[in-house]
Write a structure and sequence with these properties.
The structure is a single chain. This protein is of the alpha/beta class and 384 residues long. The chain has three domains: 47 residues, no CATH class; 169 residues, P-loop containing nucleotide triphosphate hydrolases (Rossmann fold); 119 residues. 57% of the residues lie in helices and 7% in strands. A six-stranded mixed sheet has the order 1-3-4-5-2-6, sandwiched between helices. The longest helix is centred in the C-terminal third of the chain and has 26 residues.
Length: 384
């Protein structure tokens, strides 16, 4: 309790202010100053701060806390980092996946958490996994989620950005990144795998690139059980058949259906007071869109709502209207009926926004009420 009293509230507030600005160098300087300030007043705190500074990851060595002092590999010509790194790993919004994808991801995580049991049985946890599917369906988010669940640093190598006109140099860059990731437990994502792992029978590709594929296959085979190697591609049809065989887990991501869109929209709007019927209507008109498309639209209407000082529900209705024009008449009619029946829009406004006549909306509501009445009567008759 004495140590807590000796910590100045002003120091805590200033440290928090620096941390929230995202200027890591300023934070480090201030922590060093605090370590000196509390050397005599609170030796335990001072010692802990010094140890944190010693072990803290940096831009040049993000895995230092894990015992790896090797600097992040860089391109020898441009000196730019070859990998993006995140540590600690933060997932802003919990991902939403279909049942099969969720089960496959959970399996990878659970195997890691029970690695000792697997090793006792002469088995290794899954070391490699290949994510396939169209853009924006959550492949990178899934990789980040795995890293967070396993409490491991997350490294991303975008293969489309490291391709050099000198393919021998590309091979060297790839080896440096893979060797670096092997040095300490982490999750490494090879993004845009099809950029280099193309079919070796492709007549367009040059021999050096085909040899690069061979190098990659060897590296996958030699991947240690201490780390997780993930790869993602939007064009699985371009991959060399041998690549498929090298990965222990193959996880296919698809465009989300209506139920997943509703869950995703609900999570994105969880801090807003939004009625479920608006969420359902929006999910209906956005069917066929990816998760990233939906997130972009939601962020846009939240900005609009704040800038124009309007209700978020009004912005949602406008978004529904913009996308409804691309849906068939029956879908627009159902949405219009729902919004009018729930009192969200007048018949005239629903007609304007969803391009459905008021007569059609009135008739549709009448039919719905008739169906509900018939269902109630049928239920009563069964009870009697």
């Amino acid at each position: 309790m004495a140590d807590e009293i000796l910590v100045s509230p002003e120091h805590v507030v200033h440290l928090a202010r620096l941390a929230l600005t995202g200027r890591s160098q300023d934070v480090e300087v201030y922590v060093r100053r605090l370590a000196r300030t509390y050397r005599d007043r609170n030796p335990g705190l001072s010692s802990d701060l010094v140890e944190m500074l010693r072990r803290a990851p940096t831009r040049s060595s993000p895995l230092r806390e894990r015992g790896v002092n090797t600097a992040t590999p860089v391109d020898l010509d441009s000196r730019s980092p070859l990998v993006r790194q995140e540590w600690p790993v933060v997932v802003p919004v919990e991902p939403v996946f279909n049942t099969s994808v969720s089960a496959a991801l959970a399996q990878v995580v659970e195997e890691r958490k029970q690695a000792d049991r697997l090793l006792d049985a002469g088995l290794n946890p899954t070391r490699t996994a290949l994510f396939t599917g169209p853009p924006g369906v959550g492949k990178t988010l899934a990789a980040r989620w795995i890293a967070r669940e396993l409490d491991l640093p997350f490294l991303v190598l975008d293969l489309s950005t490291v391709i050099s006109s000198f393919l021998g140099k590309t091979g060297n860059n790839l080896r440096r990144v893979l060797d670096y990731a092997k040095g300490s437990p982490c999750v490494l994502l090879l993004d845009e795998l099809d950029a280099i792992a193309k079919r070796r029978d492709d007549q367009i590709e040059v021999g050096e690139l085909k040899r690069l594929v061979t190098v990659l296959l060897q590296e996958i085979d030699d991947w240690p059980a201490t780390s997780v190697l993930l790869a993602a591609t939007n064009h699985s049809e371009l991959l060399d058949p041998a690549v498929w065989r090298r990965f222990e887990a193959l996880i296919e991501f698809s465009i989300p259906g209506l139920d997943l869109l509703e869950k995703s929209i609900s999570k994105l709007l969880q801090d807003e007071n939004v009625d479920e019927d608006l969420i359902t209507s929006l999910a209906t008109v956005l069917q066929g869109h990816s998760f990233s498309d939906v997130e972009r639209d939601i962020v846009s209407i939240r900005r609009t709502s704040l800038v124009k000082n309007t209700d978020i529900g009004t912005a949602l209705v406008e978004l529904i209207s913009r996308n409804a024009q691309y849906r068939d008449f029956e879908t627009r009619k159902i949405i219009a009926r729902s919004l009018v029946f729930e009192g969200k829009l007048s018949q005239r406004k629903a007609s304007e926004l969803l391009h459905v006549s008021r007569d059609v909306i009135r008739e549709s509501i009448k039919e719905m009420k008739t169906s509900e009445d018939m269902a109630v009567r049928s239920s009563i008759a069964r009870v009697i």
